[in-house]
Design brief:
This protein is mainly beta and 562 residues long. 7% of the residues lie in helices and 37% in strands. The chain has a six-stranded mixed sheet with strand order 31-30-29-26-25-38, covered by helices on one side. Strands 1, 2, 5, 6 and 8 form a five-stranded antiparallel sheet that branches. Strand 30 and strand 31 (415-420) form a beta hairpin. This is Vacuolar protein sorting-associated protein 62. InterPro entries: Vps62.
């Protein structure tokens, strides 16, 4: 067995079997979206090429570790390609009940439009390079190929086959280099169990290197395979680039409202939540104060926040705070007002305008104290973790080809994750559920206890999520506050959105004394030194700078952190 690939294979009898792989479907069929430009029409112009989204596939073969099913993937050929369009590579995903992704097929428009280049936008590869193969005496073999592009062109994805002969050069198209952007490996889907590192085969998902609402990179949905790739290496393939600055496939304002009403999640807070959300005007009208460095007294803020300092950068000169300590309303303001709460919506292009990101922000006047978990024991801290003004969000990613909900991003303190639509909980029709954690209000896709720290050691901060009578329905309680691509004046941004400073004062906690109290309650065999225990927890446990508003976050212009 030494020196052989420890992989099992599941190729079907024919090269491209007739049996189609099942695509995940949302609970309800998509509605007919309001008319307007090219949103939901199935095709998107990227300049000199036009692309369609392919979600129908035929399985070629599958492979997996011989040591278990946790590392199994299958390779697919896109099916149902419209006449005049060409695939750019094959598709791969971890094995599961449904197909969850897509690939793009492209049509050359360069002979129709005034092209700055004398070369066509698409071109056949010259030939192929065999990247990797694995033969099995019992189940056949599998082969991964890289298209070799002509000079001036880039391959967009790899191909898979069950035959040792090179695929036909008419199988795929390469794309002219000026119509592409660099891409990077984003998620490793498969790694072969080779005893020799030089023969280790890995399969990766890819994404554009530059991402955000001002970036033009378009993911083609293809895969990248290699036996020598290391993190940070430049890939041999590229992604597409949208040269059509008009972004015709983005939804108009009427379509945005239709999307939110159809997909707007219900956000559940924990049944023991004390610090509930509120609207921003409620916070201002109930005694929130603006402070300036060097002044002892705060200034009352009007309901729209129009007397807040606007624009600029967070220079640390201003911050907001709760009503004064001698004000009877201070405690009630800390606890929020869920009846007034609403989601503040920022709509922006994603992946070169082939997707729409609907970021939904929720405001809580106060973030409660943290709860520490050590093994089976939990300890609620007195002050550590508290801060004034808590902004959290989740983001819906919508396909501009169809208007289908593709995934949801759950923001979780210092990070977050994208969750495919097939792994979401739905409450009514196609509306997902978002769970906000107790006291901290981070968002999660399912109920339970999520640990921020070392889950392997069982040490960290608890994020407890559950359904309760406290919830906000974002399909009805929302306000669109920004959609820059629609043009100036289409969406009126509220004045408070231009406040770029801190929404709460900076707080430094006496973390050492709180940790010492925890240690005294631990069984002798679980006791640590204070320093050792401090190292196990996130650094923000011991100090909280006042949080900034949505427009100061990196993901306002950029992509989510994933």
């Amino acid at each position: 067995m030494l020196g052989r690939e420890c992989c099992c294979w599941d190729n079907l009898c024919d090269y491209y079997p007739v049996v189609e792989s099942k695509k995940f479907s949302l609970p309800l069929p998509l509605p007919k979206w309001p008319q307007g430009k090219d949103f939901g029409t199935g095709r998107i112009c990227l300049g000199e090429i036009e692309v369609v989204q392919i979600t129908k596939f035929k399985k070629i073969w599958g492979c997996g570790s011989s040591f278990g099913k946790s590392n199994c993937v299958s390779f697919y050929k896109p099916d149902g390609i419209p006449k005049g369009y060409y695939i750019l590579g094959h598709y791969c995903q971890p094995d599961g009940e449904h197909i969850t992704g897509d690939v793009l097929a492209a049509k050359d428009l360069s002979d129709v439009q005034d092209s700055p280049s004398k070369l066509p936008a698409l071109q056949k590869p010259l030939n192929y390079t065999l990247i990797w193969s694995s033969d099995s005496q019992y189940n056949g073999g599998g082969y991964i190929w890289m298209p070799n592009a002509p000079v001036g062109y880039k391959p967009i994805g790899c191909l898979a086959s069950v035959e040792p002969n090179e695929p036909d050069i008419d199988e795929v198209r390469c794309v002219r280099t000026d119509l592409t952007e660099n891409c990077e490996a984003s998620e490793m889907m498969f790694s072969s169990d080779s005893f020799f590192q030089r023969k280790q085969f890995q399969v990766w998902k890819t994404r554009p290197c530059k991402r955000g609402m001002l970036c033009a990179g378009v993911s083609a949905g293809t895969f990248f395979g290699s036996t020598s790739f290391s993190s940070g290496d430049e890939l041999d393939i590229a992604c597409l680039k949208n040269l059509d600055s008009s972004l015709h496939a983005m939804p108009n304002l009427e379509q945005i409202h239709a999307l939110i009403k159809h997909y707007g999640p219900t956000m559940y807070l924990h049944p023991d939540e004390i610090y509930l959300p509120s609207s921003v005007p409620w916070f201002f009208m109930n005694g929130a104060l603006l402070y300036k460095d060097g002044r002892n007294n705060g200034t009352v803020i009007n309901s729209k926040g129009s007397n807040l300092p606007a624009g600029g950068l967070n220079d640390g000169q201003y911050w907001l705070d709760l009503p004064n300590k001698d004000d009877a309303t201070r405690t009630s303001v800390k606890c929020g007002n869920i009846e007034s709460a609403e989601l503040y919506v920022h709509v922006k292009p994603s992946l070169g305008g082939t997707f729409t990101d609907i970021a939904m922000w929720i405001f809580c006047p106060f973030n409660g104290p943290a709860t520490v978990k050590i093994g089976l024991l939990s300890f609620t801290l007195n002050k550590v973790g508290e801060h004034v003004g808590d902004w959290e969000h989740y983001t819906l990613r919508i396909s501009n080809f169809s208007g289908e909900l593709w995934s949801v991003y759950f923001s979780e303190h210092s990070g977050g994750e994208w969750v495919d639509a097939c792994k979401l909980e739905f409450i009514e029709g196609n509306k997902p559920i978002v769970y906000a954690s107790r006291n901290g209000h981070a968002s999660f896709p399912h109920p339970g206890c999520y640990l921020q720290g070392s889950s392997k050691l069982g040490f960290g901060l608890r994020n407890d999520c559950a359904r309760s009578k406290y919830y906000v329905d974002s399909s009805s309680k929302y306000q669109i506050v920004a959609a820059e691509y629609l043009g100036e004046g289409v969406v009126a941004e509220p004045p408070w959105l231009q406040y770029m400073r801190e929404w709460g004062p900076t707080i430094i906690y006496d973390g050492r004394s709180e940790v010492e109290k925890i240690i005294k309650h631990l069984p002798f065999f679980m006791r640590f030194s204070v320093e050792s225990l401090i190292e196990l927890f996130p650094t923000e446990l011991y100090g909280e700078a006042g949080p900034t508003g949505p427009k100061e976050k990196d993901n306002w212009l950029g992509d989510e952190r994933w």
